Amino acid sequence: MDPRLQALLDKQAITELVMAYCNAADRHDNEKMRSLYHEDAIDEHGQFFEGDAMAFIDALPGIQENMLILHHNVTTLNIVLDGNRAEGEVYIIAFHQVQGEDGPMDVLIGGRYFDKYERRDGVWKYSHRAVVADWVKVDDPTTVNLEHPMIEGSRIGKPKQADPSYDFFDIFQWGKGPHEYRP
Questions:
Q1: What is the pLDDT of residue 120?
Q2: Does residue 57 contact residue 37 with C-beta atoms inside 8 Å?
Q3: Euclidean distance between CA atoms 65 and 73, whole angstroms
Q4: Rounded to an integer, what distance in angstroms lies between the CA atom of residue 22 and that of residue 77?
Q5: What are the residue boundaries of the SnoaL-like domain, all occurrences included (predicted)?
Q6: Cα–Cα dist 10/2, whole Å
């Protein structure tokens, strides 16, 4: 195969991995999250966790417990390949609505993920992910209004399998990473 075509295929697989991470985080789909990391991967998530990625995923239910809304958006993706290894600097804007003692507050974070990926047995997964915060905006109390007339009649996103996407989609499934959809 032309090496340029292989590079495109590899970068597409890594891009799908990054996007699947956002979906897994936002839906609290920890089964899918687990499928995105190699078993010996490392995750550095600031104050929330630093260490073995599988232990991070085991800790996610407690971390996510007060997260009423998570909404990750990838804005810029820089990927470099080196055979079965790759690195990525992924720019994100992530909205968090967090239940505090006095009610919900909004945390909007602009940051980056520093990623290391490895292809093992033909599948790209994370081998190391580190979170970097570049800026943050906090609204306490929340300014989110999911009952505003502008969104009346719209489906409202929710964590876990209560999200309307799981009723809408036939193919896109809970707990399934992007490598599991390939022929």
A1: 98
A2: yes
A3: 21
A4: 13
A5: 6-129
A6: 12
Asked if 173 and 181 touch (Cβ cutoff 8 Å), the reply is no
Instruction: Supply the DSSP string of the chain, one letter for each residue.
Output: --HHHHHHHHHHHHHHHHHHHHHHHHHT-HHHHHHHEEEEEEEE-GGG-EEEHHHHHHHHHHHHTTEEEEEEEEEEEEEEEETTEEEEEEEEEEEEEEEETTEEEEEEEEEEEEEEEEEETTEEEEEEEEEEEEEEEEESS----TT-GGGTTS----SGGGSTHHHH-SSS-TT--GGGS--
User: Can you list the domains of the chain with their CATH numbers?
Assistant: 3-180 (3.10.450.50)
What's the pLDDT at 49?
Answer: 93
Q: Phi and psi of 72, rounded to 5°? A: -95, 135
User: The tokens of 89 are what?
Assistant: 């600097």
Residue 23, pLDDT > 90, answer yes
Residue-wise pLDDT tens digits, 52-84: 999 999 999 999 999 999 999 999 999 999 999
Residues 15-38 have a mean pLDDT of 98
Which two structure tokens, joined as six digits, stand for 155? 């489906």
Largest CA distance in the chain: 59
pLDDT at 182 over 80: no
